[in-house]
Amino acid sequence: MYKILLKILRTRLLTEPLPEPSSDPPRPLLPVTGTLAIRHVDAGSCNACELELHALNGSYYSPEQLGVRFVASPRHADLLLVTGPVSCHMEQALIDTYDAMPFPKAVIAIGDCARNGGCFRGSYAVREGVASVLPVLSVVPGCPPSPAAILSSLEAIVLPATPSVRQIR
Amino acid sequence: MSEEKGKFPDGSGQFSPGMLSGHVFVESSSGDDYLREASVIKNRGGRLVSLWGDAGENGFLYSVFADAEGLRILRTLVRQIPRPSFPSIAFLFPLASRLERTVRDLAGWEPEGLSDFRPWIDHGLWSGPPLAGKALPPKGLPSKEIRGEDYPYVVVRGEGVHEIPVGPVHAGIIEPGHFRFQVVGEKVLRMEERLGYTHKGIRTLIRGRSMQEAFPLISRVSGDSAVAYQWAWAQAVEMATQTVPPDRALWIRSVLLERERIANHLGDLGALGNDAGFGFGLVQFGRLKEDWIRRNQDVFGHRYLMDTLVPGGVSKDLGDAEIRAMLDDVRALKPELLSLKTIYDEHGGLQDRFSETGFLDPMLAGQWGLGGVVGRSSGQMLDLRHDHPVPPYDRERVPVSISRRGDVGARVRVRFQEIRHSLAFIESVLPALPEGPANVPLERCESFREGIGWVEGFRGEILVWARLGPGHTVADAHFHDPSWFLWPTLEMVVPGNLVADFPLINKSFNASYSGHDL
Known about the structure:
The structure holds two protein chains of two kinds.
Chain A: H1 2-11, E1 36-42, H2 48-56, E2 68-70, E3 79-83, H3 88-100, E4 106-110, H4 112-116, E5 138-140, H5 147-158, H6 163-168
Parallel strand pairs in A: 1-2, 1-3, 3-4, 4-5
Helix pairs in contact in A: 2-5
Chain B: E1 2-5, E2 24-28, H1 31-43, E3 47-54, E4 60-66, E5 71-77, E6 85-87, H2 96-107, E7 110-112, E8 161-166, E9 178-184, E10 187-194, H3 202-206, H4 211-219, H5 226-241, H6 247-275, H7 279-300, H8 320-346, H9 348-354, H10 362-368, H11 372-376, H12 384-387, H13 408-429, E11 449-456, E12 461-468, E13 474-480, H14 483-493, H15 502-509, H16 514-517
Parallel strand pairs in B: 2-5, 6-7
Antiparallel strand pairs in B: 1-2, 3-4, 4-5, 8-9, 9-10, 11-12, 12-13
């Protein structure tokens, strides 16, 4: 046990300062402040975006400091976070997940595939990004987008717009 | 039947010397020849590596086997009358079953003698086999019937038996797939998979593309194995064009491959701790992995090393400062790994969850010829870096990490060992990089040529086949992920375990969905 404690002490606090919130989507985005429950759906990604979402949940980025957490059930979610170009085989499951979420709700598309199909665009087996299937609030481009870019986009949703309130937090 | 070293008898498929040696190309004109050859391979102790259909002008079935010498690549003409078909070899190599079902789905050829008539990658959305004609995206959403919700899973009946359907959307950040459990109490009687949800039609997308247009797809077959796929692709293209990559490029490639292996193993070790209720492991290994992939970004310009390894070499040469920085990383990671291994080993609760969970019988692993982390954790001495080394693995030997226990704990131990060996490998390769260019232009390609690449990725053996046309256009390509064999093995391993142990067992396999579904 003492080895675990020692390791924790030696590791210190690694969480880095938050990046600037993304200015891309205009606010207000969702009527939520200080908390955000996210349901992730992989709609045919290559798994790199998932790796970045795992990295996002690690100590360096720690989205929980914003009240952002990933939940297991769409019933608990405010936000649907979609990766992948939307493969035709995942289309129905994606729509079902969205339908299972309570209002208010929104969708964000993570990565170039989710934006417009990315390098898989034009295949018989994929749609042209999440917006071709669901209403999309904002898009984080990149292949895959870095955890900082994803965090900055989530920040824009979860933080109140005025900088003074942000400082108080 | 005729066979020749290095090429098919008609001259196609020539490879560049020094790339991969010991391969035998066999042409069989009839199904009977094919079956005879396959049973000879089986009797000699060979194992199946991959199987796919080439729906070009003639229609060939490719099946690739491996033995101690190297690959044995069989090409069989598909019988057209009374309907396109080929003989199934699933009775010799059970792992061929899903590959043959996929050939039926994608090319429309019937595997004669295969007892499983269900579709596999096809979810009932397509108007016809995608490889055979011009495939178009389906219009609108399909009806329930067509959606394959009637897929006939094998159902267990009896008192107290119930069914748990899971997926395709799982309760976590993970790729999509469906698992159907037949359960009594807490115990799993049977688990069956349904995959194909991430099918993106990569095979059809890549056909007709130029070398440059095809390139981004290679890293994205399975994003966690970007380097392994890029290297296998490069081998295939270099074999087809008879290009010899410079030594320096090969050495840098090996550093890339081992960096990818270490990053993934770190992630898996953390996730395995977490799935056994030890969140400390996830946090600790997570930070080590993040440090590691940040260096990838600094040195190679991509956290997951996508688009870094080009046919003909590598896209980026290494300078002294970068080499020093990567050597520092190795020195920093070693003591961290050691201290975390001690914590994992000494944690009674963790070891209790790992031990005897998800047991894969070494006998079965041997019969199926399973390599990769899973095979090696069940006593299989298979590692391409050791058995069929390309430079620099022929000089800087990597020991095969092996365990005979066959449980989740064995797969944890093998991952720890492999990280240690990869670190030592990087430490000896980096200071000794040969001088010279980091890439060379591809030799010209005026006719249709084929090539094969075979690389030990972090999961296991990745095989890539490519046929190039004049001007380096990609006429066709096939990508084989080790997950094709990991998924059926998982089905064999899960019964008898608790439902709650499934995530742990699944994680210890860490099979890819995207690399499998293509």
